[in-house]
DNA sequence: ATTTCACCTGGAGTGCGCTCCAGGTCAACG
DNA sequence: CGTTGACCTGGAGCGCACTCCAGGTGAAAT
């Protein structure tokens, strides 16, 4: 087992068939094989690459940058340093993203505590969960 | 000090003036005051509310849901339970988001280690940082 | 043999969240 | 008094990342 139809690939990769076609069209999936009747045939390697794309995409990397990465990947071993740098930058951004989310989550949880009345026992509290909204 | 021009508000809130207008237009900023000549005047409360919106927005809440939240907030104290539920749901999603990011970051870091040669000492490793990309 | 089915193509359309624009108003400054 | 500058409005436009569509093909099932 090492080659997959578009349908299988969509299922396994989590991308829709349309997205797979789109990715191939813009150059994110270079060298996808075709069978005799012109249909795409995906390999295990393709699936692995799709996994990487998925990971980058879901961590917020824009397509333009994934494109750069995939061009580098096509470029062979001389581009390893650049690829490394790109990934390290991205890793950094993911780190910051997580940190920001944590702070914002804290703010939301503070609000939740406020709403659920776990904070301060003043009678006013029930009626004045200040939203900063005018009456 | 408790009232701000659109410009100041944009600066303090981090939203552009255009976005502030847009938010008012769609109902996310109900009851923004106007001065004699029709210009918007923002209060401290408005700024606080904008802070909340910012937090929700940046944690990935879609505008439609923020809209629901702000309608609830306008609805007074009877909606506190619903608002609480909404925020708890969102908090949950943020939690999951962070968890997913962590996993994906781990994958990226694994790749980084691979690229930086910290993994396995085989000579082949240098030339075969398998991308799953065909030659 | 014909119907079904998964797939193909190029290109148009969609949804979201803004962002920009033209044309106008008003208060303040020199 | 003229000009700046910040703001106003309604509505059009944009960038991103898909997603959908019409019309067609080729292999397989009935």
Automatic annotation (TrEMBL), chains A, B:
Which key words are in the record? DNA-binding
**SUPFAM superfamilies per UniProt:** Putative DNA-binding domain
Supply the name of the protein. Answer: DNA-binding transcriptional MerR regulator
Gene Ontology terms for molecular function: DNA binding; DNA-binding transcription factor activity
Q: Give one Pfam family, short name only.
A: MerR_1
Q: Which CDD domains match?
A: HTH_YyaN
Q: What PROSITE patterns does its record include?
A: HTH_MERR_2
What domain of life does the UniProt record list for this protein's source?
Bacteria
Species per Swiss-Prot/TrEMBL record: Actinomadura livida
Domain spans labelled HTH merR-type: 3-72
Q: Which InterPro entries match?
A: DNA-bd_dom_put_sf, MerR-type_HTH_dom, MerR_fam
Q: Where is the signal peptide?
A: none
């Amino acid at each position: 087992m090492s080659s997959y139809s578009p349908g299988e690939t969509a299922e396994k990769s989590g991308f829709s068939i349309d997205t797979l076609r789109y990715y191939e069209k813009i150059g994110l999936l270079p060298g996808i094989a075709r069978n005799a009747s012109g249909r795409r045939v995906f390999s295990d390697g393709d699936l692995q690459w799709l996994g990487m794309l998925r990971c980058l995409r879901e961590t917020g990397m824009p397509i333009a940058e994934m494109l750069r990465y995939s061009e580098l990947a096509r470029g062979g071993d001389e581009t390893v340093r650049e690829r490394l740098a790109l990934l390290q930058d991205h890793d950094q951004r993911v780190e910051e993203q997580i940190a920001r989310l944590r702070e914002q989550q804290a703010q939301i949880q503070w609000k939740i505590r406020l709403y659920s009345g776990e904070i301060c026992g003043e009678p006013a509290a029930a009626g004045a969960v200040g939203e900063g909204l005018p009456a």
